[in-house]
Amino acid sequence: MASFTMSKLLSLPATSATAAALFPTKTLPSIKPSPSTSFCCPLRIKPATLRLHSTKSAPTPIAATITVGTKLPSDKTLSYFDSAGEVQTTTICDLTKSKKTILFAVPGAFTPTCSQQHLPGFVGKSAELKSKGVDLIACVSVNDAFVMRAWKENLGINDEVLLLSDGNGEFTRAIGAELDLSDKPVGLGIRSRRYSMLVEDGVVKVLNTEEGGAFTSSGAEDLLKVL
């Protein structure tokens, strides 16, 4: 077969026939499951071992847009599944108006620290927090509402903590809490920094923020100390 020069190759008409001749496709063999293969095993989701600290050089600390005394963006919408299995939406105004609310955020559902420490800590201390005047405890994550529901069910959470989806990251961006985990091999992308805050009537009264995936100052115990 005669070889093409680059100029001749580029001069060829861009037709599907030409493309097919130059770059023939190969049909991959189909894969059939063996008769013994079973797909009926129950699925149990367990947190994977994952380090949320970047393998790159340490990032410059990012200051959140919000600080103590900031009024949260009241119009931002979050979603969740109610007890009847229906998707509901709520706003920051609904969550905080005339209330004392704890909002805390995690980098991702099903990730180790979030599943084993951060969220369970607030679930375990929910009664104590509410006895000190807290009306609502809510966990925010840049995950869709279906993932948040599955996470809630996996951890056996009832109404101790409301799990909220900030699926498009709009609330997270509005308060300057983005966390770029794009360099992770598991494809976390842009998520939320870990934080906890006490909000009264829409105004931030206490704010604990973390760098990267650290978990040192944003737990339930840290808020109990100031209530």
Automatic annotation (TrEMBL):
It is an enzyme of class 1 (oxidoreductase). It catalyses: [glutaredoxin]-dithiol + a hydroperoxide = [glutaredoxin]-disulfide + an alcohol + H2O. Residues 66-227 form the Thioredoxin domain. The keyword Signal applies. The active site is at C114 (cysteine sulfenic acid (-soh) intermediate). Keywords: Antioxidant, Oxidoreductase, Peroxidase, Redox-active center, Signal. GO terms for molecular function: thioredoxin peroxidase activity. Its EC number is 1.11.1.25. Gene3D superfamilies: Glutaredoxin (3.40.30.10). PROSITE patterns: THIOREDOXIN_2 (PS51352). Transmembrane segments: none annotated. InterPro entries: PRX5-like, Redoxin, Thioredoxin-like_sf, Thioredoxin_domain. One of its GO terms (cellular component) is cytoplasm. GO terms for biological process: cell redox homeostasis; cellular response to oxidative stress; hydrogen peroxide catabolic process. The keyword Signal applies. It comes from the Eukaryota. Residues 1-21 form the signal peptide. Thiol-specific peroxidase that catalyzes the reduction of hydrogen peroxide and organic hydroperoxides to water and alcohols, respectively. Plays a role in cell protection against oxidative stress by detoxifying peroxides. Belongs to the peroxiredoxin family. Prx5 subfamily. This is Glutaredoxin-dependent peroxiredoxin. It comes from Tamarix hispida.
